Amino acid sequence: MLPEHPEGVWLVDLSAVTSAALVPQALATALGVREQAGRPHLDTLIDHLGGCRLLLVVDNCEHVLDAAAALVHRVLTACSGVRVLATSREPLRVPGELRYRVPSLPHPDVVAGEGLPTVTGYDAVRLFLDVPGRWRPGFQATERNAAAIAGSARGLDGIPLAIELAAGWTHTIGVEGILERLEDRFSLLAGGPRTAAPRQQAIAATIDWSHDLLSPAERMLFRRIGVFAGGFGLSDVERVCLDARDGAGVDALG
User: Fold this and answer.
1) pLDDT above 90 for 112
2) Three-state SS across the chain?
3) Rg of the chain's alpha carbons, rounded to an integer?
4) Which of 82, 94, 124, 172 sits at 20 to 30 Å (Cα–Cα) from 55?
5) pLDDT tens digits for 226-244?
6) 101: exposed, middle or buried (C-beta count within 10 Å: 0-12, 13-18, 19+)?
7) Residue-level pLDDT at 113
8) Which residue has the higher pLDDT, 223 or 115?
């Protein structure tokens, strides 16, 4: 995308930002813009970006969502040459936002009957093979282990973090051992890099991170819809969530 953005593509990583007030500082740090005494930092940033044609990749917005949305809206309103690609677990809901849900990696739907060439054509399988290959170059799928690798990728729903954590056990328990232990996935899907954020070291921590971001009403909704074993519709949610005592329910779906 560089030809469309002469001033470059800039990454603004919000993952380590602990306060909404520090969101503009994260943008300034990414762009190398120094604060000016007696002047709001955001105004300095707007002046810097005013005539630029660049792309801001604002990553991990979910835990400072309101501040990130306010920042993006202000920048887009004042700087016509700036575009923003934001990643978040929920939309920013700013004018002009186009939403794209990042899908899981393509993975085998049915293990039986798929030969080695077909199995290795899936992105989820290729990622699974890449992880043990970092420690043992040349590791690859064979006719003997292809079914276990495909079954693991399928059982992990093509989720990249889950695949990386599971594949990290390959040298310890083998690919067949990984497939056998998927039912105890919270124990299996742990042991990520020590330098990674805690929520990227274990699937349980990832779920905790997501749950902690929910409002009290959303947490109540989450608990109640846990009664469903399969799919459900809005009318089903209303039956288990609308309550004369608390009046909560569908509002949390927003």
Assistant:
1) no
2) CHHHCCCCEEEEECCCCCCHHHHHHHHHHHHCCCCCCCCCHHHHHHHHHCCCCEEEEEECCHHHHHHHHHHHHHHHHHCCCEEEEECCCCCCCCCCCCCCCCCCCCCCCCCCCCCHHHHCCCHHHHHHHHHHHCCCCCCCCCCCCHHHHHHHHHHCCCCHHHHHHHHCCHHHHHHHHHHHCHHHHHHHCECCCCCCCHHHCEHHHHHHHHHHCCCHHHHHHHHHHCCCCCCCCHHHHHHHHCCCCCCCCHHHHC
3) 22
4) 124
5) 899 888 998 888 888 876 4
6) exposed
7) 57
8) 223
Average pLDDT (70-90) is 95
Q: Which residues contact 153 (CB under 8 A, 6 or more apart)?
A: 105, 107, 108, 122, 124, 125, 127, 128, 163
Sheet hosting strand 82-86, strand order edge to edge: 9-13, 54-59, 82-86
In sequence order, which residues have a C-beta less than 8 Å from that of residue 156 and are 6 or more positions away? 107, 124, 162, 163, 166, 182, 185
Q: Token pair of 235, please?
A: 């009318």
**Residue 142 above 60 pLDDT?**
yes
| CA pair distance 215, 71, nearest whole angstrom | 22
Cβ-based neighbour number of residue 212 at 10 Å:
10
The residue whose two tokens read 């009290």 is 216
Q: Identify the CATH class of 2-86.
A: alpha beta
